[in-house]
Design a protein that fits this description.
Protein name: Tyrosine-type recombinase/integrase
Radius of gyration: 24 Å
Largest sheet: 3 strands, antiparallel
Strand content: 5-15%
Strand order of the largest sheet: 1-2-3
GO molecular function, one term: DNA binding
Family: Belongs to the 'phage' integrase family.
Keywords: DNA integration, DNA recombination, DNA-binding
Number of strands: 5
Shape: globular
CATH topology of the largest domain: hpI Integrase, Chain A
Oligomer: single chain
InterPro entries: CB, DNA_brk_join_enz, Integrase-like_cat_sf, Integrase_catalytic, Integrase_recombinase_N, Integrase_SAM-like_N, Tyrosine_recombinase_XerCD
Number of domains: 2
Structural class: mainly alpha
Length: 327
């Protein structure tokens, strides 16, 4: 704490720990407000993705307030409501709801810290939004087969890519969970092999390894020769075009670019990304008679409604019915 004030004094747009920009309305209220603002992002929010999203939302809101001559104590519910209505003309409803949640939580934190007396975002309602199906595009069953079969397995990078895509497909894993895996997170229990996924909120999700995925992982680990490095990352970045792997873990952008390359090489027409394999895996499981509640448990979802968003079985029914339209 003693080091925090030294980076808070100064002009508007000062930068706090971790490169966190401090808005002018916050700085204008003095050191106490600035420290409380920094603490919200550094101590209150543990997930790095959520922290970055909320920091962008707060920065955008306070930039808007500064542009309208609103100091922190003068911000009222009508101002928050006006801002939310304005960004709603450009952003989707889920994005607007996320920004409002960030503003509301930040002001709650400032109220508790006695920086402001009331939360001006508490009474503001966000846009209504409900979704029966997620927007994530997924490859068809044939496209998934073609893509996996097209990955060359005569080199280490190809075997890594096949094992990584297989992990996303057969475990319903988020890309962040798969990228965070260590070599020791693939381990035997009796005669079966299991996987330990590092999910959001520091939670670990463990599940048996599908036999096909086990073949992919075993082949990859044998060629990579990293079995002994239990604490090292499982999926590692490539060293240029040498075909060798570094000791660093792949990042989410690395995985996305890899999937784009593999999809293009395989001639996959559907625009897919990392999350597409989660949808493909859940849909394939349900198509083969799996139960929604089991898919929920395997995916690590708190609610079956979230799992249902990945169920695309009705897409095929809709297409069949559309084809009945004939003159």
């Amino acid at each position: 704490m003693s080091q925090v004030p030294s980076v808070l004094h100064g002009h508007a747009g000062a930068v706090g720990p971790g490169g966190l920009a401090l808005p002018s309305p916050i700085l204008a209220e003095g050191e106490r407000a600035a420290i409380r603002y920094v603490e919200f992002f550094t101590a209150q929010i543990r997930n790095s993705n959520t922290r970055a999203a909320y920091a962008r939302a707060a920065s955008a809101f306070f930039t808007w307030c500064e542009g309208h001559g609103l100091p922190l104590p003068a911000i009222q519910p009508v101002h928050v409501a006006t801002y939310i209505e304005q960004i709603g003309r450009e952003l989707s409803a889920p994005s607007v709801k996320q920004q409002l949640a960030a503003i509301r939580m930040l002001f709650d934190w400032l109220v508790v810290g006695q920086v402001v007396p009331l939360n001006p975002a508490a009474a503001v309602r966000g846009p209504k939004h409900s979704a029966a199906k997620g927007k994530t595009r997924m490859p068809t069953r044939d496209e998934a087969k073609v893509l996996l079969a097209s990955i060359p397995t005569d080199n280490l990078v190809g075997m890594r890519d096949r094992a990584l895509i297989g992990t996303l497909l057969f475990t319903f894993a988020r890309v962040s969970a798969a990228a965070a895996m260590r070599v020791g997170d693939y381990y035997p229990v009796g005669r079966r092999w299991w996987l330990r996924l590092h999910e959001k909120g520091g939670k670990h999700h463990e599940m048996p390894c599908h036999h096909t995925l086990q073949e992919y992982l075993d082949a990859y680990l044998e060629v990579a020769s990293i079995e002994a490095d239990k604490r090292g990352p499982l999926f590692r970045t490539a060293e240029g075009r040498t075909g060798r792997l570094r000791s660093q873990a792949m990042s989410q952008p690395d995985v996305y670019r890899m999937i784009q390359r593999r999809a293009e090489a395989a001639g996959v027409a559907t625009k897919i990304g990392c999350h597409s394999w989660r949808a493909r895996g859940i849909t394939a499981y349900l198509e083969n008679g799996g139960l929604l509640e089991h898919a929920q448990q395997m995916a690590g979802h708190a609610s079956a409604r979230t799992t249902k968003l990945y169920d695309r079985r009705n897409d095929r029914i809709s297409l069949d019915e559309v084809e009945r339209i004939a003159l």
